[in-house]
Structure formats: C-alpha cells, structure tokens
Amino acid sequence: MPTTAPSPRDRLLETANRLFYSEGIHTVPVDRLVTEAGVTRATFYRHFPAKEDLVVAYLRATDARLRGAVESAVARDGADSGLSGVLDLIGETTCAAGFRGCHFINAAAEYPNASAPVRVAIAEHRAWFQQAVTDLAARSGHPDPDYAGRVLVLLHDGALSGAQLDDPEAVRRTLVRAGRDLLGLPAPE
Amino acid sequence: MPTTAPSPRDRLLETANRLFYSEGIHTVPVDRLVTEAGVTRATFYRHFPAKEDLVVAYLRATDARLRGAVESAVARDGADSGLSGVLDLIGETTCAAGFRGCHFINAAAEYPNASAPVRVAIAEHRAWFQQAVTDLAARSGHPDPDYAGRVLVLLHDGALSGAQLDDPEAVRRTLVRAGRDLLGLPAPE
DNA sequence: TCAACAAGAACGAACGTTCTGGCTACCTCG
DNA sequence: CGAGGTAGCCAGAACGTTCGTTCTTGTTGA
C-alpha cells in the first residue's frame, strides 16, 4: 500500500530543494514551484508569506539533513574519532550525481546582504559545522583542534566548489589525501 | 591635467565589475548598470548584444586582472619559487575590504547550465589557475606537483568561500599555515 | 461550520530589449 | 579650408514578457 501522500508544505519544500539547488534561486519562479509541487499559489502563500521564506525553510531543511548525515558518518566510524568518516562523507557527496556545489555557498552568492534572513541561516549552518569538526578533532586527540577544525572547513568548502567546476573524482582523492595528511590520520587501507 | 575620460565600454566594464561582484548578477538590472556607468541603453546594447555578454566580458576582465596579480606576486618572491607569494596574495585578497568571495564561483552559482558561455569563461580561468600553481609547485621541486597544485586550488577555493562567510583573518591564517605545511615551506618569520 | 486546498484570473512592478530623435566629434573629399 | 556625411553617444519613451503577490470562486473533509 502506498504511504500517505506528503502534505502540500512538504511537497513545496521537496520541490524547492530540487529546483533551488539544481537551477539557482532567483532563476526559479514561483510558477515553477507551485506547478511542480502540485499546489496552488494560494496554498503557497498560506505556508510561506513570501518566496524568501521558502528559501530560508529550504536551507534549514538542508541543514537538518546534513546534521543527520554527519551524525551517521561519525557513528559508522565506530571507535575511531569520526574525522575519517566525515572526510569520506564529503568525498562521496561531491561525487554524487547532480552535485552542484554547496547549498549554502550557492545561496550566499545570490543574497549578498549579510544581514538577510537567508544569510543568518547560512551562518548558523556554518557555525554548527565548524564546531562539529573541531569537536571531532579534539576527541581524536589532535594537538591543535581549533586549527584542525578550520582546515577541515577549508578543505570542505574547497572540495564542494571544485567538484562542481573541475574533475569531481580528482577533487575527492585530493580532499581525502590532504585531509589525512594535515590531520595526521593514517592513510586508508 | 586630468587623464582622458574612460570610454563608455570601459565605464560599463568597471561598473559591471563593481556591481556584479558586490550585489550579484541577476539582482543588478540593466537600468543600474547604464545609470551608474553614465551611458544610455542604446550605447550598452551597441557594445554588448545582451546582458549575458557583459557578464562574460566582466569575467574575462577579472581573469586578466588576476593573472597579472599572480604574476606580480611570483615576481615579488624573487629567487623563491613564488608559491609563498601566491599564498600571501590569496590571504591578502580574502581580507580586503568589500571582499565577497570568488568572482567565478559566485557567477557559477547563478549560471547552473554547464555549457553556458559564462561557465566556459569560468572553466578557462580555473584551468589557468590550476596549471599555474602546479607549475610553481614543480619549479619549487615538490615531489608531487600535480597533487600540490590540486591542494592549493582546494585551499584557495575554500579560503575564498570561508573568508566571506566566517572570520576572514582566521581563514587567512589557516590558509597560510596549511599551505606551508603541505608544501614543506618554512613558517613565516 | 470552518479551515485547507484547487483552479485560475488579475494586478502592479520590474525586467531585458528595441526604437525614435537629436547632438557632437571626426573623417573625407571637394 | 570647409561642407557634408558618418558613427558614436545622449535622452527618454516604449514594448512585450515575466515576476511576486493578491483576489475570486468553488470544493472537500474534519
């Protein structure tokens, strides 16, 4: 039996995630969103006062999904610190089909005003990730976890940009090797 | 005596560089461009058949400027390989006032179609930079210049994204330290 | 009965682009 | 030298389209 159909709001969020990520935000009109989500304009504006509110909701949903993915990757690493799992996760992400860079960096390019709600959501996501990898570095016994965390963020951002514009597989290999070198992790089997 | 006034085309390019970079491309209408450049619409469309042609010209002009900046940084390094100078150049760039990330990565976020002329210009710029730092790594005697070049691009892209969204000075320090670690350069004085 | 939704028309603003008309500088050819 | 043409530019109106947002009406299900 089919599961219950997702609510209009969820369909809008799912459509927003697909279209905003693959085609950009300003280039996707409300028309496309409501058509492909199978809802009417009235329904759209009942759930989101304006298009920008959907953008923020889209980023927050993406943030929640990524937090879950990192948690899983860390858990998969078992007794290890989790840093290796996070490196692998980034590498897998950048090589996935339809990959088009970082949801948040891309959105920031379209919202230059640093105090816009969109930018607040971006800043919150980045602050979480920075803290998460710094904690992992500390847990792994790295002598300078703050530095290690910042390097991981640097490599992460660079990989997400490069994998979209250059050769994704080469970027993935470089990321994993450089991450392990810089963090003092052993080479993979 | 004042130098001769720049041509309408040059004023358009200069205005495009300023506005596109600081506010994004789709968010800046042709109205703003012609008003702030002090030209008329007719003049605009005489030099550029469409807005997208100005975007491409803006990216190519930026590309030329960056090539010159890297050349100067390498030359400043004197007898050294030039890698140190390039690292410092990136660090200075990311901390400059009005910095808003990479011209090319930002533009790519607004032009998802990988075969668009804008994306071609972006690819050409990235191919040049990749080759340039790889050459420098080879000249410095790095045992694996291809790997070193790719790491430098990774760090560069990450720094440009991070400096815009996080603490620029911390990003700069992390970039220089990580770059020197990987390249086996001595720590700065 | 009421709130959520479908369907679609409608609105005002903003967009990229084209057009009309007049002014000025420069080149050409007598 | 000087008349006449040509090309580049200014000023601003105009066009057709698309955008984000609102409104109207009718239907469904709790």
UniProtKB/TrEMBL annotation, chains A, B:
Q: Which domain of life is it from?
A: Bacteria
Q: Which residues bind DNA?
A: 29-48
Domain named HTH tetR-type: which ranges?
6-66
- Quote any Pfam family the record assigns: TetR_N
Keywords of the record, alphabetical order, are: DNA-binding, Transcription, Transcription regulation
List the InterPro entries hit by this protein, alphabetically: Homeodomain-like_sf (IPR009057), HTH_TetR (IPR001647), Tet_transcr_reg_TetR-rel_C_sf (IPR036271)
Protein name (record): TetR/AcrR family transcriptional regulator
Q: Which organism is it from?
A: Streptantibioticus silvisoli
